[in-house]
Design brief:
Layout (H helix, E strand, L loop, with lengths): L14 H14 L1 H29 L6 H8 L1 H11 L1 H4 L1 H11 L10 H9 L2 H5 L8 H9 L5 H12 L5 H28 L1 H5 L11 H5 L2 H30 L1 H13 L6 H17 L16 H14 L24 H15 L6 H29 L20 E2 L2 E2 L9 H10 L3 H19 L10 H9 L9 H14 L6 H15 L2
Antiparallel strand pairs: 1-2
Amino acid sequence: MNLTELQLKARVRTSWQALDLGVKIARRWYLSLMLAWLIPALVVYLLLVAGMYAYGMWSVSPLPLSLSVLWEVSPLWLLLIIWWLKPLLDRLPLFLLSHYIFNDKARGWLHWRALLRLYRFDALLSLSVRRFDIQRSLHLPVTVLERQKGGARKRRCELLRRGCGPAGGWLTWVMMSLEGALSLGLAILLLSLLGIDFYIQPTFLMKGSDIALLYLEILPDILFMALIAPFYIACGFSLYLNRRIELEAWDLELVFRESARRREPQSTIKPLLSAALSLLMLCLVTPLSIAPAQAQEPTLTREQLDARDQVRTILETPPFVIEKNVSHWQWQDEPDQVDSEDSSFLDSLNNLMDEDSGDLSSLFSVVELLLWIGMGLLVVLVLRKLVSHLKAAPVLSKPNARGSVNSPQVMMGMAISAESLPEQIDARIDEAFERGDERQAMSLMYRHVLFLLIHQHRVPVEPWYTELECADAVKQRSQLPLDGCWDELTQYWVQLAYAHQSPPRARVQYLYLALKKVLAP
């Protein structure tokens, strides 16, 4: 996580402003987020449909009454299963959005094993105990990005909720209402276009137990979920980022970095520039004696006044102004009669619907086959589109033998790998202290101790951890007899890095040698 590449302005916002920002974020990367949610949902849908279709083909006919009823309502069960899996389907869009926000353009393919680890992590609790979490969008980054579980996840979620108020809950209710409104609106639109006869006789295209078209009826509901999901995920992630900016002072850190970058040594031209600016300000504030200007009202002649009145009278009479009272609804361009060609087509369609003697089973079989072929081609095209969007997505790191991710190489903008540290580090530290470069000396000491803790003693940390979070992670390894030396060294480093307070040289060297004796004997 590189704060300098953050694609939004780091400042503390209210919860409602964070939700507005989430809507703009979703609009920025809407297509990628929607496809990242829709394609896994379609894969689950096709697997469930194939399983139910195979069950219907292999079952002994006729089916028992209970199984027959379950088979008839199975499309609703499909929709319920996909709705229940929404906490898992939201993970891939959130993962992609986190890399888009921090402008992470790492190259490589997103391997299927990495996707499996993404969906498998803490999946059981997400689908059981925490399924009806009203603030799921706010808590989702803790599971997906921070990969916390158990008591650590609970404490982290409580800390994030403390400053968000009811915004996370209202977000869930509003997005759920929008999904319901879209589904209800589509149903009302179809009934309005097809008429009441279609509603009374819904099986005009089905023969016997053929319910293949019922499985297609839930596809619009899945599409509506995919349309709303980017806004729900982005708004929740915006609330999460807003709380982290507030808790960790990202805005102040970026200001300090920018100030340090712009800071330059004093030059001889600055006194002259200050004097010139002072003289310029003195000239600007000196009052000048200028005679006030008096504005005069324009005077119109008699002929101009008469002409203006005549023009106004003409514009207020027909044909420029037409007043007409209408007491009933009418079409803007109402046709006199229905086109004969359209009328004949509707009559033939009604005759076809009313026929009961014709056997259309073969026709329906051909239509069903064409629909399955079309769905397969559509899924292939959408998969190719998603692959093109995921080419720049970074691959998730592979867990090591201890169950944590690979040790990070860069933390807090500092390289902590073995290659980044000098060979004779003690001599370099003494040289930095001798020439008065305390920041360089403290940086070498802090990076060296952090390297020993992470790469040799396997302290579990994440690349986005701050200094205080690293100190908390070290405290959890109680088997290391550090005696508070690491906490004190961290405190001195934070005071020097952010408050520019020089630490006592003898004390920090003593702490460094004590830590080095324990960690690298």
